[in-house]
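Throughout our pipeline, every protein is held as a single compact record rather than as scattered files. Such a record has a labelled line for the sequence and another for the backbone structure tokens. The remainder of this section carries one protein's record, kept here as part of the documentation:
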Amino acid sequence: MRRTIVSILAMVATAVTALLVVATPAQATPHSCFGYTGKFKTGTRIEYADWNNDNVSDECFGIAPARTIWHAWPGSGGWKQMPNNGRADNVVGSFRAIVDRSWARHVVVRVTGGADYYSRLWENSSAGWGGWTRCTPSDC
């Protein structure tokens, strides 16, 4: 009988420990950009975008613990969630490139579970951000 009770207690302790590990939220690390502080997934990087190539950051991108993608820029009033429900595990980079004969801003994020990448396009000041599109490291 004593062995049965000890076995049951051991199983309960194991189950409780497993629940605590699963229920623990992702770790968050505070980070500031342009004077705005946000909490980001520990171990991820913050991307500093220099859109006009003057060696000064124009916009920052980061991944929150819930895998949402956020950005901030001077005068934004704080970190803002990127539109269209993008989810990611890390920020890869940012760059400008010509799309349909006009400059477009791109931010590239990685989604774990293989080589799945997504990029985001900005066509011009009136169009705003487009939708998330899948790309590979060679064509992002």
